[in-house]
Amino acid sequence: MKKYASLLLFALLLNGCDDGDLTVDTIDFDDTSITSQSCDPLTNNLIYRLKPQESLLIQLPDDKIINDPTLEGKPLIYDIDNSTYRVVYRAYDGTVATANICGAIPPTSPKVTQEWQATAGQIVITTTPITDNTATDGSTKITGYNHNINFKNITFLKPSGPQVQEEFSFGDYQTTVTPVVVTFSDENADYCPDTKKIYNDNTVSSLVLENIADLIVNEATPTGTPRTSLINLNGTTNKLYYRTYSGGLPVDTKSYFCTEKTPTTPAVLDTWVGQDGQANVSGIIEVTTTNDLKVFRHKIVLRNATLQKGNSTFKLATTFVLGTVTVVVP
Questions:
Q1: Given pLDDT bands bounded at 50, 70 and 90, which one contains residue 234?
Q2: How far is CA 36 from the centre of its chain?
């Protein structure tokens, strides 16, 4: 009888101590409806996921989430050191919100009831682009990047002792970027005959064909038969570059583009390069020439051209008009 009475008393004590604290044996954030979020880097370099009474936090330098696709089989890998690269799990005695994670002065409630610090393992990040392919002209835009984050051989120091998990998924974390849109208000392009450079610009960006092959010839082309060549990044001719600048280009753009050595101002922010073309498939340069007496107009069209920076790529319109160069023959 005393044995049963003791068991009953123990059960009552357990029930009396239930103050809403969450007891956790394993971490489970597999629910795809849980969205990964981040704090303002000026406040806290944290990426986190929240459940009603739980949080899973990653702290790493803000330049380690890179907006560029990782190559297949070559993710970014960072070693957890509980200093620069940290992973922390917390359980609370009430509902947790962003203010509990990112606030400069965290609220006093809910209180942390459990905290597991990761002491070893790796953060593994696989990045893919988020692309908008809806344009009717065949162009594409990168609107952001999806960073799939996993942990390998992660060791959590629990109150009861270390716990090792060989594979553990944090989930997806998405970043947004301003899409690159190549457009020019003026269809008139400029030509540097000495360097064989054709360019168009809109004061803050430019699209340039450098050392163009012998396509600018002051002779009309037969109807439907333009002169053609291919973008050739690794060759000596037909290199295509799209650049953006910090500050506007000079009014006299020839002083910038047609000099032998490009000026250092304005500074270049980003450079995208044209991928090599394939005959009858992609990266095709077409020049159609018409004339009115001694005035020759050379219309330069790029077909199925793709621009690349790092591992990121986007497509220009299937038929993209770089511009028309006008040459007056004496």
A1: confident
A2: 17
The answer to whether the beta carbons of residues 322 and 287 sit under 8 Å apart is: no
Does pLDDT of 5 surpass 50?
no
**Which of these, 51, 47, 112, 54, lies nearest to 86 by C-alpha position?**
47
Q: Residue 300: how many CA atoms within 13 Å on its side-chain side?
A: 31
pLDDT band for position 107 (cuts 50, 70, 90) = confident
User: What pLDDT does residue 185 have?
Assistant: 85
pLDDT at 19: 44
Tokens 């986190």 belong to residue: 48
Cβ distance 212 to 195 under 8 Å?
no
Give the amino acid at 154: I
More confident residue, 303 or 11: 303
DSSP string, 82-141: SSSSEEEEEEESS---HHHHH-SS--S-SPEEEEEEEEEEEEEEEEEEEEE---TTS--E
Q: What is the dihedral of CA 239, 242, 244, 245, to 10 degrees?
A: 30
3 state DSSP class of 254:
helix
- Which stretches does DSSP call E strand in the chain? 37-38, 46-51, 54-59, 76-79, 86-92, 112-132, 141-158, 161-176, 190-192, 197-201, 205-210, 227-230, 239-246, 267-274, 284-292, 295-303, 306-309, 312-315, 319-328
pTM, two decimal places:
0.87
The HSE-up count of residue 140 (CA atoms within 13 Å, CB side) is 16
The backbone torsions φ and ψ at residue 11, rounded to the nearest 5 degrees and listed phi first, read: -65, -40
Q: In this structure, what DSSP letter does residue 5 have?
A: H
Could you report the per-residue pLDDT of 302-315, keeping only the tens digit for each? 999 999 999 999 99
